[in-house]
Amino acid sequence: MAEVNLSPPAMPAGKKRIAVMTSGGDSPGMSAAVRAVVRQTIASGCTAFCVYEGYQGLVDGGDMIREMKWEDVRGWISEGGTLIGTARCMAFIERAGRLTAANNMIEKGIDALVICGGDGSLTGADKFRAEWPSLMEELISTGKRKDHEVAPFRHLNIVGLVGSIDNDLSSTDATIGCYSSLQRICQSIDFIDSTAFSHQRAFVVEVMGRHCGWLALMAGVSCGADFVFIPENPPSEKWEDDMCSIVKKHREMGKRKTIVIVAEGAHDKNLNHISASQVKDLLSNKVGLDTRVTTLGHVQRGGPPCAYDRMLATLQGVEAVKAVLEATPETESPVICIVENKIVRKNLVEAIKMTKKVAEDIGRKDFAAAMKGRDAEFEEFLQAFNITTATDKGDNMLPKEKRLRVGIIHVGAPAGGMNAATRAAVAYCLTRGHTPVALHNGFPGLCRHHDDQPLGSVREISWLDAESWASKGGSEIGTNRSLPSEDFKTTAYCFEHYNIDALFVIGGFEAFTAVSELRKARDQYDAFKIPMVQLPATVSNNVPGTEYSIGSDTCLNALIDYCDAIKQSASASRRRVFVVETQGGASGYIATIAGLSIGALAVYTPEEGIHLNMLVEDIKFLKDQFAKDKGSVRSGKIILRNEKASKTYTTEVISNIIKEESGGKFDCRFAVPGHVQQGGTPSPMDRVRAVRFGVKSMQYLESYAGKSKEEIYKDPMSAAVIGIRGARVKFSPMERIENEETDWKDRRPLNEFWMNLVNVVDTLSGRPQSCREG
Ligand code: ATP
User: Fold this and answer.
1) Does 3 score more than 50 pLDDT?
2) Is the CB of 40 under 6 A from ligand 1?
3) What are the GO MF terms of this UniProt record (predicted)?
4) Looking at ligand 1, which residue's alpha carbon is closest to its atom 26?
5) CA of 315 to the centre of ligand 1 (A)
6) Which of 39, 182, 540, 639 has a CA that sits 20 to 30 A from residue 218's CA?
């Protein structure tokens, strides 16, 4: 027998050997996270490993812990589940199993471990980390390892990535996989909806979530459900009567269908389980509805990750490797989280403690504490859900003098979520006693005037009008690009004529410009001295004052579906590259984030432009890539070019140049998805954020009720834009944003937060810096 060298491999100082594993229930995006960790590790000059089959692989060792090369993870970004396998491993729960795992890690010379899993997996990781010094001692004292073998591994460097469909880890707004799962749920409910409507039926839909109601609540918000049952906020003791009376009221108001969503772990305030069949019986027997139960089951876990999960997994994977490389023996183990739009590192031990506390709070029936233990968004969403489904006008109504007539207008191109935001605003207005007024077809609709017709296309919106808009794409009240400056006088006249006390403007850069114009014209027109809020809604995500516009997520999902299909075609022909043209106006946001989400070879943005040397270098890079591919099944390549990246180097020209210069080694085609990018049905993320921001915007406008026109005029915050800025949702004063943060010529923010993400696209595709420098 050949001698086996059991000594750990020699480790060059500073060159880490980083392993990544997936554990617990699979979730869409886990493979994307593994790809990002492997490639960022290799790009950082370190050695990447995968531990196959979760902790079982760590306990079994040998070939279950494998070195990974760059090409090994090609195409993984768009795959569902986890390509390195996952398992529930009993052996790791025992110290003996963890001792074996530790020994295997030393054997392979692994000095850092990135674990992507749910709270159970991260609890295991935390235990492993806490025990590590004693495991090392035991390996030495039992003679399994020598002192010098263990010496380089005295500190276990662990980083957590939260991969779970449940979104149940406190400290992070979203887990890798939760939005894909939500997408699957909403798609199913949208389908059920049409049957329910046709037959005037009720459906009780059971969704996953044993201890966490995030999926149920978000599905309720994005699908406009009538009632939701979640473990953190159980209904009152008389919930049977409450639910039945809400459903009855909705029916009396003219609703033809009923959707009730039940989280798997739903219970009442005494922790008695509430089942879907129990709810069905109530709806059938007490309300007299033809009721069916649908249990969605494992479809919720499966399928390819949505755009957000791919981006989250990729950015968090990159951050995990950075955290490993920056760690010192004193650094506390982090878990990589996201707060609003910011990737942050938080303390793993604390995050697990907080998560466990929510379960304990529920067990102790302290539901207020359980709600607090979830992220801040969660409570806001619950409030938003309650507002949009509330029908009793009792305690919520404001006194008469505080009630407003709120004008709601859509401006610019349609974007996913515009209708959901309008529906939420209408529902909020009605519960508070305000009057929501639709200004149809933008400013020209408002100003339309014929001698023989009443002025303008203006109508009050009823609850039933807007009730079905939660999931609708396009714009139900009509939208138009024209600006108020085209006819200030009639606009002001109409505002007065229809007694508009507050204005809610939903749209993209035109909407931003419209609010800016109205604000500036306050000097001449008293009618504009009313509070105004813009909710950014555009596929381009180019509105100053926010890092996120509703509609941009829908666009990204439409684009990645399109690119996945193109990539498959390109892969099938083995030697083909596609240049795909994206929308986005003069902002490269969509191109860049889509590039991150599909693993594009390169993105061409208007901010950077395109020049000849860049193309020359990229063609060299392509040749090099195809040479390495050797006919791989995942060899399809995509370059994303924003529609305004260059006047000269159009998508077709670039495609022709690449083809011509390929020396016959590969083919190049181009594709223009065009308006497909506006998406059909809005994504759940756009819908839920539309609801949240719609309600917040109404509360904001309401805060001006009772103020005089002069007070409003003098207050810079009275014309504002709502947006996500880093880790916060904020209202920003229009005056400052338009003066200090807007690139008016190119219609985009002066500082675009995503610009450095182009580097991440390049790093993960292996594109050398020289390509961009040209
Ligand atoms: P999901 O959110 O899908 O349930 P999870 O990560 O919470 O995912 P679990 O089954 O709870 O899934 O945990 C996965 C694995 O993590 C377990 O099979 C076990 O190997 C390990 N693990 C969980 N809890 C512990 C613990 N307390 N000590 C050691 N290992 C643990």
Assistant:
1) no
2) no
3) 6-phosphofructokinase activity; AMP binding; ATP binding; fructose-6-phosphate binding; identical protein binding; metal ion binding; monosaccharide binding
4) 124
5) 24
6) 540
Q: Write the residue with the smallest CA distance to atom 11 of ligand 1.
A: 120
- Which of 111, 126, 166, 762 is the catalytic position? 166
And the tokens for 733?
């004063």
- CA dist 553 and 564 (Å) reads 16
Say yes or no: CB of residue 118 within 6 Å of ligand 1.
yes
| Contact of 68 with 96, CB cutoff 8 Å | no
The number of the ligand 1 atom at minimal distance from the alpha carbon of 128 is 29
Atom 10 of ligand 1, nearest CA residue: 24
- Which tokens belong to 739? 């003066």
Q: Is 24 touching ligand 1 by the criterion CB < 6 Å?
A: yes
> And the tokens for 732?
């920003």
Indicate the length of the chain as a whole number. Answer: 774
Nearest CA to ligand 1 atom 27: 124
177 close to ligand 1 (CB < 6 Angstrom) = no
Write out the binding residues: 25, 88-89, 118-121, 164-166, 201, 208-210, 264, 292, 298-301, 481, 538-542, 576, 583-585, 643, 669, 675-678, 747
171 CA from centroid of ligand 1 (Å)? 18
Phi/psi region, residue 41 (left: phi>0; alpha: psi -120 to 50; beta: rest), is alpha
Distance (Å, whole) CA 616 – CA 768: 13
CA–CA gap between residue 427 and residue 422 (Å, rounded):
9
Model pLDDT for residues 592-645, shown as the tens digit of each residue: 999 999 999 999 999 999 999 999 999 999 999 888 876 666 678 999 999 999
How many whole angstroms separate alpha carbon 505 and alpha carbon 500? 13
Give the separation between CA 423 and CA 668, rounded to whole angstroms: 45
Interface confidence (ipTM) of the complex: 0.96
d(CA 330, CA 344): 19
For residue 726, give both structure tokens. 């880093």
**SS3 for 47?**
strand
Residue 92 Cβ contacting ligand 1 at under 6 Å = yes
**pTM, 2 dp:** 0.94
Q: In what order do the strands lie in the sheet with 576-582?
A: 602-604, 637-642, 576-582, 667-671
Question: For 386-399, what is the mean pLDDT?
Answer: 78
- Cβ within 8 Å of residue 213, ≥6 positions away: 228, 229, 230, 231, 232, 233, 263, 265, 266
Number of CB atoms found within 10 A of residue 629's CB: 19
Which pLDDT belongs to residue 774?
Answer: 67
Q: What is the mean pLDDT of residues 25-35?
A: 97
Segment (H or E) for 218: helix 214-223
- Token couple for 483: 């600006």
590 touches 682 (CB < 8 A) = no
Annotation marks residue 624 as catalytic? no
87 vs 160: CA distance, rounded Å: 17
Q: Judging by beta carbons within 10 Å of its beta carbon (0-12, 13-18, 19+), is residue 244 exposed, middle or buried?
A: middle
- Tokens standing for residue 401: 């003098």
Q: Tell me, in angstroms, the distance from the centre of ligand 1 to residue 307's CA.
A: 27
Residues annotated in a binding site for Mg(2+): 119
Enter the tokens of residue 217.
């609540």
